[in-house]
């Protein structure tokens, strides 16, 4: 791998730029792959949250509450994404607003999950677990240093 700068130059590079560039490249790659299944990234998270519920079911309010905890998009767009999944026949919603995957929803989710494993492998190519953990710890420390919140589901 050829790096853009020497170590001496990299140490002076702005973390804001590199964290943004990494976010843009990685999230763009993930979203492009999910789009091939007709899913947005929040819809992908919805399907996984529903599947992780007891008996593969979860109340809409619980799904929205969990996801809103670490997304900047708020409840409205999440509800719209859930509505779209119901209209597409990937989720059902009963009278008590409990969500469940349909067989078609389970199939789409499982195929997207397999792709996501491939995407993760590509993103992590040439990066061993020790390096990955070190990067995340450094980023968490920097987030902490500026008073940010560094947690994930």
pLDDT under 50 segments (min length 5)? none
What percent of residues are in strands? Answer: 5-15%
**Overall average residue pLDDT:** 90
Rounded Rg:
18 Å
Q: Any idea of the CATH topology of the domain at 36-120?
A: Arc Repressor Mutant, subunit A
Q: What is the helix fraction of residues, given as a range?
A: 55-70%
Instruction: Please tally the helical runs, counting DSSP H or I stretches of 4 or more residues.
Output: 7
Task: Show the helix and strand layout.
Elements: H1 7-10, H2 15-35, H3 41-51, E1 57-59, H4 60-68, H5 75-87, E2 91-93, E3 98-101, H6 103-123, H7 129-145
Antiparallel strand pairs: 1-3, 2-3
Condensed summary:
By secondary structure, this protein is mainly alpha-helical. The protein is 63% helix and 7% strand.
Could you characterize the architecture of this molecule?
- This protein is mostly helical.
- The chain has a domain at 36-120: Arc Repressor Mutant, subunit A (Orthogonal Bundle), CATH 1.10.10.
- The protein is built from 7 helices and 3 strands; from the N terminus they run H-H-H-E-H-H-E-E-H-H.
- The protein has helices at residues 7-10, 15-35, 41-51, 60-68, 75-87, 103-123, 129-145, and strands spanning 57-59, 91-93, 98-101.
- It has a 3-stranded antiparallel beta sheet with strand order 1-3-2.
- Helix 3 packs across helix 6 (103-123).
- It is elongated and about 60 Å long.
């Amino acid at each position: 791998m050829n790096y853009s700068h020497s170590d001496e130059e990299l140490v002076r590079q702005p973390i804001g730029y590199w964290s943004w560039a990494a976010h843009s490249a990685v999230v763009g790659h993930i979203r492009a792959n999910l789009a091939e299944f007709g899913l947005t990234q929040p819809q992908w998270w919805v399907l996984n949250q529903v599947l992780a519920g007891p008996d593969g079911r979860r109340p809409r309010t619980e799904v929205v509450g969990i996801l809103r905890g670490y997304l900047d998009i708020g409840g409205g767009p999440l509800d719209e994404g859930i509505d779209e999944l119901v209209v597409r026949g990937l989720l059902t919603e009963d009278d008590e607003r409990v969500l469940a995957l349909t067989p078609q929803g389970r199939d789409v989710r499982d195929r997207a999950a397999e792709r996501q494993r491939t995407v993760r492998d590509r993103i992590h190519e040439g990066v061993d677990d020790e390096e990955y953990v070190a990067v995340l710890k450094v980023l968490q420390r920097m987030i902490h240093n500026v008073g940010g919140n560094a947690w994930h589901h």
